[in-house]
Specification:
The structure holds 2 protein chains of 2 kinds. Chain A is of the alpha+beta class. Helix content of chain A is 19%, strand content 41%. In chain A, strands 1-2-6-5 form a 4-stranded antiparallel β-sheet, with no helix packed on it. A 4-stranded antiparallel β-sheet of chain A has the order 4-3-7-8. In chain B, helix 2 packs across helix 7. In chain B, 50% of the residues are buried. In chain B, the strands form 2 sheets. A two-stranded antiparallel sheet of chain B has the order 1-4. Chain B has 21 helices and 5 strands. Among the domains of chain B are: 91 residues, no CATH class; 214 residues, no CATH class. Chain B is 59% helix and 3% strand. Chain B starts with 18 loop residues before the first helix and ends in a 7-residue tail after the last strand. Chain B is globular, with a radius of gyration of 23 Å. Classes of the chains: A alpha+beta, B mainly alpha. At the A-B interface, helix 1, strand 3, strand 7, strand 8 and helix 2 of A face helix 2, helix 3, helix 15, helix 18 and helix 19 of B. Strand 7 of chain A pairs parallel with strand 5 of chain B, so a sheet runs across the interface.
Chain lengths: 157, 498
Amino acid sequence: MSVATLRRLAVFFLAAPFLVGGCRGAPDTGDAGLVLDLAISPTPPAVGPARLIITLSDSTGAPVDGAEILVEGNMSHAGMVPVLGTAEAEGNGRYSVPEFRFSMAGDWILTTRATLPDGRWVESITGTTVVSPIRDRGAEIAPGAGSVRLALLEARP
Amino acid sequence: MTGGTPSAQGFDLLRAPVAGPFLRWRHSRTVLQALLLAVAIVVIMDGLWGPQLAPKNMAGILPWVHWRGFVALALLVFGNLFCMACPFMLTRRLAKRLLPGQRHWPRPLRLKWLALVLLFVFLWSYEAFDLWASPLLTAWLALSYFAAAFVIDGFFQGAPFCKYVCPIGHFHFVNSLASPFEVAIREPEVCASCRTRDCIVGRYENPRGVDQGGPPMRPRDRGKLLQRGCELWLYQETKTGNMDCTFCMECIQACPYDNVGILARPPAKELWEDPRRAGVGRFSLRPDLAALAAFLTFAAFVNAFGMVTPVYAVEAWMGRALGTDSEPLILGILFLAGMVLIPGLLVAGTAKASALLSGSGRTVVQEATRYAYALVPLGFGMWVAHYLFHFLIGGMALVPAFQEYLADLGLPLLGSPAWSLGPMVPDSWLLPLELLFLELGLLVSLVVAFRVGEREVGPGPRAFRAALPWGLLAIALSIAGVWLLLQPMEMRGTLVVG
């Protein structure tokens, strides 16, 4: 392989990410006329199962039924398998995931996506801190320790 | 005495099938650098403009899960592969063409103290600003690295960025002291009869002069540079081991006698030997190097402490005691104590005990400068345990993230993201593997401490007494490491939501 060919290959190889890499933008959050809200029980959640309660309404506040709702939980650190959940309809714009199993303590980001039969969709992102089960084993670490880092982060300018 | 490590009968990677021909190829390093440059560009672009959710962003995955894992693996089975493939050095080549590059690096900075401080800042920033959770900051970190390498090596002679500045490179340098390969000469006699010394001065169009019996000529009078010599000033004949060696292979390409190889060696052996090393000097006369070695050892444990549940209780307690909720401040104090102050006291106390028990009559600094290197394998074991944990638990997560990355770019070439992918080994393997690496590190540290003792005070009970305090320190640290590995993981970072 000649040096000239190598150079051409190198230029192509190095230019490729530049050509395509900038096209990936922030995610779209869907239909602005739909409002999605997520609550977690218990709060704060601990490692293990938690119940997710989701409400879907339109811009007037009227409940919206008939949506398919998926929840994806990711940790703030890359490399952890996401936790997925499908919500069950409870009526009057209310849905729930009865057992959303948080696999590790730490900061989680829950991405909830509701899709209506007519194709409209909306997505919301919710952050939560999952506390360690260490307290359940009787080894209390400190009052409020589960939320200290989050509190510190919120205080950051 | 020459410091080279002749190993004519030993395994030479350059003579191995497949790897050998590739590594001997003149452009092999450039190819490896181009690969990592492409990865760096993806990281920067996605970090700056992609979704700011780390698990979905290449800047969240590639550096903090894969790069660190591969670094640990490469150091464990090979050597300083990631300095060899370092893309930041491509900017150095550019800088050498565009900028004057004639200044000498300031004499007060020709030690490892600056690198140690920058390593501290790097490790502290990682925790204080949750770099793993911020693709944007990760991208800026990579960009800063390119800029720093360009500016520093553009204005100064040689490769001061690698030799005195780069915190990542110094992480590699120190941990590669325990690696199984080194760039070294094959036959000392060949170097002894060499007149041109191309491995250090480079090869030019015109001969050097001395090889033809005349006076030596200056490089600028010798025409075009055909092949650079070592820019970190490691003269092969007296080079020993991996300290300051970036595996750039310039010496291999420059040697007209094909007398430089990548040779297998007993891992960590160089930690208990103390020859005068080219470009480095004797380890036992370099307090800065010994401090760097000790710092990185303790940093391995503090860094892992930052990822387990009890750290939040400690942070909360410190916050209340200090009356502050500034996480960078709290972590700064915690890291300063855990990586600098407490290690300083422990190493000083251990050195004092070692000097007293062995009757060496040396000062604390002299003693510590001889024995602190014994801690390197233990620290390396902890780094490997930590970084491989992340890699093994989430290495496959790159697949769905890359599928989504391509799909977002309008190139759904690999199908729908398979989000169930993540772990590379069953969960039940992780803890045994982590403990294995940690305890292997401890074992090697104990051997090194004893061998240093033998070297310093002679064989027998005195060597044992000299090594005993260092062995006890290593055992205490490894117990702390076991405790850390048994703690529940708790990974917190900047939440990217309102």
